[in-house]
Amino acid sequence: MPQQYFIYLMTNPNNTVIYTGVTNDLIRRVYEHKNKLIEGFTKKYNVVKLVYYEIFDDPTSAISREKQIKGGSRKKKVDLINSMNEQWQDLYDEICL
C-alpha cells in the first residue's frame, strides 16, 4: 500500500482550542496527543479530540494544505470542521477501525 499523509485538526474537550498538524501515521499521532506523550502545545492545552482530517498521497501536498489551514482564521477552521463533523465528535475510534 502506498504511503499516505494526513493533515488533522484536534481540539480540547470544550472545543475552545484548535490545533492543526500533519503526519504520515494519523492513528499513532493522535494516540500520542491523547496520551500526552509529546511536550508542547497539545499537552499544555489538553488537545485530545480528533475532529477533522484529510488524506494525501504525497507529503508536499499535505504540508502545503497544513500551512493553508494554519494561515486561515478560526472561523475558517470551524467551518472546515463543521463540514465533516458538525457535532465535533472524536473521530479517533473511526480511524482505528
UniProtKB/TrEMBL annotation:
InterPro entries: GIY-YIG_endonuc, GIY-YIG_endonuc_sf, UPF0213_domain. SMART domains: GIYc (SM00465). Residues 3-79 form the GIY-YIG domain. SUPFAM superfamilies: GIY-YIG endonuclease. Transmembrane segments: none annotated. It comes from the Bacteria. Belongs to the UPF0213 family. This is GIY-YIG nuclease family protein. It comes from Roseofilum halophilum BLCC-M91.
